[in-house]
Amino acid sequence: MNPNLLIATNGFKGTLPSIEYGTWLAVNLHAKVTLLGATEDINPAAIDEHHPLEDVFARAVEMFQKNGVEYTLEVENGNAEDLIPRKAKQGNFITVLGPLGRPQIRHLISGRSIRHLMEEIEQPIIYVPASKLPLKKILICIGGLGYELTAEHLAMQMAIKSRAEVTLLHVIPPMDLDYPTARTVRAHWQNLAETTTPVGRSLRQALSIAKEDGLMANVKARQGNVVEEILAEVKEGNYDLLCMGSLYSSNSLRQMYAPNVTAEIAEASFCPVLTARYKQA
């Protein structure tokens, strides 16, 4: 069954790009949309006052109707960070999110909302700090462990619909350990797709899928800090969509101490970020 879209807003104007992006995605994937509105911090004394959610909903409905998108509207009271994961668990959704407009002091105390939402939502997420349409260039990060496969498959579907060019990126971090695979990666970092390493096999498989689908695809490799190098490539390549796997696809103890690269990228990205946990077929 094809997934439907869950688009969420708390009335913050910064969520409008995610609604625009979700509308475009619904048209291309022939998906139905559920627009979830979170009414936060309602003052009983101001119950009759105009709520910013009304303006955002009005803009959203206009977009949906103009593009022939089938939609339903839902409004619930509470914090968006609690309501969105709860709703996402109720269906086969791709969840489309934007910045919720939280004050800087809240970021410092409890972290950014997207980090919490990535932890709680098991389905694919598209985080849209800014809407970059039409979709012409997609960057897919390949780690070599297979955690990116679910995001990769969804990205390929989007690329087919848009005839977008696909770039497969692997970042080689500084290596403290010296073992055969690490030596091979360091020695052949500019032609990794030709190696027998796990990342080499992943790159070849992704290239093969892209070419079978008639897409233009190429491979890039960079060396250095993973977060810094991915952000640098996004900026230099002027990509319209960044696709990554999720650390939470791992059940090992590694996620207890490894940094969540995807969350850090999403917090600092210049374009929409698609992330999805790996699920075995």
Describe what you observe in this structure.
The chain has two domains: 4-127, HUPs (Rossmann fold), CATH 3.40.50.620; 137-276, HUPs (Rossmann fold), CATH 3.40.50.620. It is globular. Helix content is 39%, strand content 20%. It has a ten-stranded mixed sheet with strand order 3-2-1-4-5-10-9-6-7-8, sandwiched between helices. The longest helix has 15 residues, at 52-66. With 281 residues, it is of the alpha/beta class.
Produce a short descriptive summary.
With 281 residues, the protein is of the alpha/beta class. Helix content is 39%, strand content 20%.
Widest sheet: strand order? 3-2-1-4-5-10-9-6-7-8
Oligomeric nature of the chains? single chain
Fold-level CATH name of the largest domain: Rossmann fold
Query: How much helix, percentage-wise, in residues?
Result: 25-40%
Q: Which architecture name of the largest domain does CATH use?
A: 3-Layer(aba) Sandwich
Taken in chain order, the helices and strands follow as EHEHEHEHHEEHEHHEHEHE
CATH C-level category of the largest domain: Alpha Beta
Radius of gyration: 20 Å
Outline, from the CA principal axes?
A: globular
In DSSP terms (H or I, runs of 4 or more residues), the helix count works out at 10
Low-pLDDT parts are 249-259
Distance between the termini: 14 Å
What is the count of structural domains?
Answer: 2
